[in-house]
Amino acid sequence: MITARAAASFEPVGRSVASARSFVRDTLQGWGFADIVDDAVVLTSELVTNAVVHAGTSADVLCLRSDEGVRIEVADRYPEREIPLQATAVNMGSPDREGGRGLQLCAALAGRWGVEYIPTHKTVWFQLDLPARAVGTRAAGPALPADLLPLADSRVRVAVVQVDRTGHISAWNEDAEELFGYPAEQVTGKPLTDLAAWPHTPGTSTGIAEALRLSRWEGSYGIRAATGRVTPVYASHLRVRDTGGEPSTVCLLVRDHERAVLQTPLRGPASDSSSGSEGQNTDPFEVFIGSPAPDDLDGLLQRTVERARDMLDGDSAFLLLATDDETELEVRASTGLPSARQRFARVPVEAGPGRYGSARMPAVHDDLTAVPGAVPLLNGTGMRSVVTVPLKVEGRLTGSLGVAAEAPARYSNEEALRLQFAADRIALAVESARLGELERLRRGSLSFLVEASDLLAGTLDRDQTLALMAQMTVPTLATWCAVYTIADQASEPYLSYVLHEDEELIDGIKYLLSKVPAPDPVPTPGARVWTAPAEVAHQAALRSSMRSLGLSGSPTRQVTPGIGPTLATASAVGGETVVLPLVARNRVIGMLTLGKPTDEHFRQEILELAEDLSRRAALALDNARLYSERTAISQSLQRSLLPPELPEIEGVEVEVIYRAAGEGNEVGGDFYDVFPIRDGAYGFAIGDVCGTGPNAAAVTGLARHALRLLAREGLTGPTVLERLNSAILDEGARSRFLTLLYGEMRPQEDGSAELKVVCAGHPLPLRLRQDGTVEPAAEPQPLLGVIEDLELYEQTVTLDPGDVLLCVTDGVTERREGARMLGDDGLADVLTTCTGLTAGAVAARIMRAVERFASDAPSDDMAILAMRVPGLHKD
After folding, report:
1. Which of 160, 338, 443, 611 gives the lowest tally of CB atoms within 10 Å of its CB?
2. Which domains does the chain have, with CATH numbers?
């Protein structure tokens, strides 16, 4: 039964793919289906891309909610169908191809999928089933001995926090004050996001804003207490509404180690009482872990170490998971140790020679002081005795479980056997949960990379690309990020961008990194550890502490003012720092540096995701560099084709306005020039080369410079243009048609100006008289660059005092708004209103009229040359 539906249509443009992803994500999160959002977004992205990019049609997306799950349909208007023969296997393409993976992903991720055809549409649909989950059920666990019950403080405090529809705290009870140290009046009205330390690993959690909008949510996060420390909590959220219909979220929070108080038990399968017996043995896994077992990996691991510590009456316990190649172990859970600062740290499987140096075998150490380094995780913790056992699945090492005590000789082989028995009971469950987490992370990573590629492809601005790189990594992948760029192979790396999740620390990190030599630009792929920032941070913190205690060795020395590496800055960069090369087109163009705060480490999956992101970011950054270089070259070439300045002509006002079309990435074909020929005579020209780009630029440069050279040889206007025509034809394949208005102007003693004009295929110049009449000032003649033997002639025009000669390119006269065009008549009408204006005012009025004629940006270059002979008296 369909319980809800949502539909949207998307135009056949590239940005529609991102819009479709946002539509599906918002719809499913609004329905409370965060578990399947990543799969749905990836599949929708592929199918909509096929429709709007490859098929070139609009796409209709329909989301249907039912009791079983969610069905999503993507329809396009390209009803191509192929009915395979019964004996022929359907080939869905190679997974290595750039496109055509939509059906392969459907087959891999969806529970059901299919393709439906009608004469006008093709629809690809897929259904994602909801994971089995018990919501709102009542359950009871088995009776357990007292020593197996969950541990809690002497008094369990349950913080009750109510959050309104905007995410602001509206209620805060006494237990919340006791747990986190804030009085109610201090936090009421503040956003919960100011206090919540939410996990940001992609694919493993829902964001806090989404969680507060769900009808019910349960899980772990942290609350920043008044002391500044983060208190891990386990929370149960319930969305309610008051009698007025106003929604809010009630949050119940306990300390994370007391999660059993709030954790909802999983609904087990209905049992048949007839099949049971009083003598049935209890499941050893349930006896050790307790009921209900946590349904998430972190909860299972934390419960495991707590049970192991209690079982052997130890002071601490830890659990490590093996990497895929079984060469290293990764710290994933601990109790009684400063493990929060060492989460995801790695230690080798083979720590030393002999069986006691390998995590593959059980080991008992009576006194670690006698064998320092035998268990690297316990170095400096004060633990003396330890027992460790391997976690194995089908003979393969999957992890290691250990219990330690501060007293020596606490454990024997008997305790090792008991711990090994427990490890064997949980190994399969841990491995299954780990694989599930890894799969969710990979699916989340795929969705993350799709979004990142879309954002990076949407800009060609270098600074914006750098900002996007940093914003995509912080805080999703790292706590802070720095991007170094390399201009060329002879240049040193330059610190271009720094970002930290706390903006107040950015300046301090910049200062600290400026004191550290940049990492070497090594092209080797993958992340490598960079210890220099942590070392400098440690030294800075030590110096700062010594100064605060007056132990700097120079009591009278004053600390210099400035940003400086404060203790907060040193702590922010004091953890693990890794460097990933930015390689594009076989050249290292920079480095992406990711860092964690003090004693924190990166997990391998995050580093692999960062490596994928760095490859995409490097290409985007290099594309932005190439675009910037091309734009700079184009603009420089465009400037070289125009005269640097106009000469001062006594008795004649001259004004030019030039507007290049587009964003400056193409060299225009329009040009103008005004230059002295000889004493008292000046040449002027305005022309338009057919086309744009390098070939048009070559003809533009040839025309402008040839006019100056030929005119100064004393040749007449027709002769100048005929020789220029021959030079253009000599360009061969690079030659272009050229319309050109060329003239020679000589001011007269009576205040007038004599002009000799040749108009070779160009829009005719217009003459504005003082009485407001407008008339063409020349006759049309053949354009240049078409035929070899041109016979041109010049016409003499006299500008009386107050007259204006207006010359324009066809970008002015061919300005369009739909089917309307300004044209020669429209230009003449505007010019009739310019009587009595200066040359500058005339050019400005013409340009305003052209811009107002149409709302769209100009599609062609425009040049306006206005020359006016002032009256005998001052205007």
Report:
1. 338
2. 2-79+99-129 (3.30.565.10), 155-261 (3.30.450.20), 297-438 (3.30.450.40), 459-546+566-632 (3.30.450.40), 642-869 (3.60.40.10)
